[in-house]
């Protein structure tokens, strides 16, 4: 007996009730399963609890901008993001695409064009899978989506920059990541030559997560290149 195909789940994020009703009518009639959110915070929580196959996102939200939501989702999610906004100027479109959006549709929109863009995004994303939002390495657990780190069950207090470094390394576990790659990802392209800043932050990070002074259990230095996040092998049982 064949396994029934899982319905496509779409997260709709818009603070206008009229828009949410219109999208509900259009999308549910085509068999899509919807989650609805009116705020950025609600959207992020719903994306974490039940990761969507696609996000339809407004730029103007009451608590945070859609750009911030897009940026936050892109720290762990690969599902396509379609911006749906009244803003039609080129600068807004460029910024949204640069921050991780896959497409941009201006309000008002036709149902036909919306559905065509969603189908195109889902086709392109069919071969992609999101990395797990939680990385476990021995006693160290990194919840990338919730920006939470625990060590032996206890919360580890990291600065935002320390977390961003650790999350980037963890998403590339057992791969050598160059200093330039980390600097560009965490600080931006204008910081790619500031290796000293990176070394200072890595040193502080190690003091918080490594078993003891001088230990390199999780963050391994690759001399002259960068760093590697190591996942300890489970003991043979």
Can you describe what's shown?
This protein has 2 domains: 9-125, 3-Layer(aba) Sandwich (Rossmann fold), CATH 3.40.50; 134-229, Winged helix-like DNA-binding domain superfamily/Winged helix DNA-binding domain (Arc Repressor Mutant, subunit A). It starts with 8 loop residues before the first strand and ends in an 8-residue tail after the last strand. The longest helix has 15 residues, at 111-125. The strands form 3 sheets. Strands 2-1-3-4-5 form a 5-stranded parallel beta sheet, with helices on both faces. A 4-stranded antiparallel beta sheet has the order 6-7-8-9, covered by helices on one side. The protein is built from 8 helices and 12 strands. With 237 residues, it is of the alpha/beta class.
Total strands: the figure is: 12
The main sheet orders its strands as 2-1-3-4-5
Approximately how much beta-strand content do the residues carry? 15-25%
Number of helices: 8
* H/E element sequence: EHEHEHEHEHEEEEHEHHEE
For the sheet with most strands, the description reads: 5 strands, parallel
**Arithmetic mean pLDDT:** 89
The N- and C-terminal alpha carbons lie at a distance of 37 Å
Rg, Cα atoms, Å = 20 Å
């Amino acid at each position: 007996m064949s396994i029934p195909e899982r319905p496509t789940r779409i997260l709709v994020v818009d603070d206008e009730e009229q828009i949410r009703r219109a999208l509900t009518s259009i999308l549910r009639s085509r068999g899509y399963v919807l989650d609805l959110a009116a705020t950025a915070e609600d959207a992020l929580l719903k994306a974490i609890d039940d990761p969507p196959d696609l996000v339809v996102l407004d730029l103007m939200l009451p608590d945070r901008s859609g750009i911030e939501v897009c940026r936050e989702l892109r720290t762990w999610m690969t599902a396509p993001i379609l911006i749906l906004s009244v803003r039609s100027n080129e600068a807004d479109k460029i910024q949204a695409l640069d921050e991780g959006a896959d497409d941009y549709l201006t309000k008002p929109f036709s149902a036909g064009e919306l559905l065509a863009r969603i189908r195109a995004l889902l086709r392109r994303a069919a071969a992609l899978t999101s990395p797990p939002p939680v990385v476990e390495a021995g006693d160290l657990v990194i919840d990338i989506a919730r920006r939470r780190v625990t060590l032996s069950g206890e919360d580890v207090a990291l600065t935002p920059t320390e977390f961003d470094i650790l999350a980037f390394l963890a998403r590339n576990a057992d791969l050598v990541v160059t200093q330039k790659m980390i600097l560009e990802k965490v600080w931006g392209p204008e910081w790619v030559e500031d290796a000293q800043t990176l070394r200072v932050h890595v040193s502080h990070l190690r003091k918080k997560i490594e078993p003891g002074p001088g230990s390199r259990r999780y963050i391994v230095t690759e001399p002259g290149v960068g760093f590697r996040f190591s996942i300890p092998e489970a003991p043979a049982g």
